[in-house]
Amino acid sequence: MKQCIVMLLFPIMLWSQSYVGHVENFPIHLQLDVYENSSQANTTRAEGYYFYDSKLINIPLKGVISNDTITLIDGYFYNEDNISSAEEVFTLQKKGNTLIGQLKIKSQIYQVVLTETDTDPIEDFRNPKLHVVKDSVSTYNNKQIVWFHEAYSNMSLFRLGNGFTKSQRAIFNSKLDSIHFQFAQGKLDCNSWFEVSNTINLVNDNFVSFKISYSVYCGGAHPSYGTVGYTFNLKTLLEVNNIEDLYPNISFFQLLKSEYYDPSDPFQEECNVFTDAYNWDNKVWNLTPKGVLLTPSYPHAMTPCEEDYFLSYDKLIAD
Q1: Residues of the chain with pLDDT > 90: what percent?
Q2: How buried is residue 319: exposed, middle or buried, by Cβ count under 10 Å (0-12/13-18/19+)?
Q3: What is residue 7's predicted lDDT score, i.e. its pLDDT?
Q4: What is the C-alpha separation between 103 and 28, in angstroms, rounded?
Q5: In the structure, what pLDDT confidence band is assigned to residue 81 with cuts at 50, 70 and 90?
Q6: Do strands 13-23 and 26-36 pair parallel, antiparallel, or not at all (unpaired)?
Q7: Domain map of the chain by residue range?
Q8: Among the four 89, 144, 215, 282, which has the fewest Cβ within 10 Å?
Q9: Which tens digits make up the pLDDT trace of 308-317?
């Protein structure tokens, strides 16, 4: 039997280096990765990002290296055929462990001097600087929800305040810290379009249940949309990952189908809402004061099919 070997071709990285320095008097960090360029002879392809230390917002870079000159522009507007006509262009020379040159922004020229560093711009410099600032306090059932925003990304999320026990605050505020900083880092990594909204659906003595919805575009053909549901069990001090953990004897797909399936509804027919059970395998769910909100999960192209469906606690108990 003949054996067929399939080879996956990836760009070959030639070198990678982090730099720290200045654009005029403005401190910056820059990361540069250099690859073989298959489209043009005698050139290599460069990619990376930089950020101003005062802002920490990543600006993607793409460009080429030709005749020892590194030319880089904003990666969101990259076109290899007309790099020099971009509104913002780095033109740099590599001399030993330094990059020296200029940044042209429209008609303005700024001098650039950068030095190699072993410090990771993201993990060692940027992320440790992220911190939250208190905004406001909301009260639900005599329990305080304290809102904060991260100072550089301006991303908002809450923490548990007065009215929750010390253990509840310690465990779940740590989780909320992690969630908050993940979204903050995501926005700083992707500064083109990164919208996030928070919805708290339930706060009582037993649960805190909320959703985070996002709309993100970081390059490529399409933006990304989605919603993540979180439910904290205040009694067990654990996060509840699946609604079946609370109602193990209920088939939510079948119960929703019995409640909502309408074969004459063109929306349900087009989205196969209650004909394809796999649309509910990764459903998003949240608790509310009167029942459970459940949303099917679809591939990217069918995200308009994602719609909330409600089941009351009375219905869940009856079944």
Answers
A1: 75
A2: middle
A3: 44
A4: 12
A5: low
A6: antiparallel
A7: 13-119, 125-318
A8: 282
A9: 999 999 999 8
* Residue located via tokens 């209920």: 250
Question: Residue 98 has which token pair?
Answer: 């330094």
| pLDDT score of 8 more than 60 | no
75: pLDDT confidence band, cut at 50, 70 and 90?
A: confident
Residues in the chain: 319
Residue pair 168/234 in contact (Cβ under 8 Å)? The answer is yes
Q: Which two tokens stand for residue 22?
A: 């200045």
* 32 closest CA partner among 21, 129, 194: 21
13-119: what CATH class? mainly beta
Sort strands 26-36 and 108-117 into parallel, antiparallel or unpaired: unpaired
Cα 169 to Cα 293: distance, rounded to the nearest angstrom: 25
Spell 162-190 as b/e; 16+ CB within 10 A means b: ebbeeebbebbbeebeeebbebbbbbbbb
Distance in angstroms (rounded) separating the CA atoms of residues 69 and 292: 60
- Among 12-16, 204-208, 229-233, 252-256, the minimum mean pLDDT is found in 12-16
pLDDT digits (tens, 9 = 90+) for 184-231: 999 999 877 899 999 999 999 999 999 999 988 886 666 788 899 999
In sequence order, which ranges of the chain are alpha helices (DSSP H)? 127-129, 166-189, 252-260, 266-271, 313-318
Placement of tokens 């079946």 in the chain: 244
What is the spatial distance between Cα 151 and Cα 123, in angstroms, rounded to a whole number? 17
- CA 231 – CA 286 distance, rounded (Å): 7
Biggest CA pair distance of the chain:
76
Strand partners, 47: 33, 62
Instruction: Judge whether residue 107 has pLDDT over 60.
Output: yes
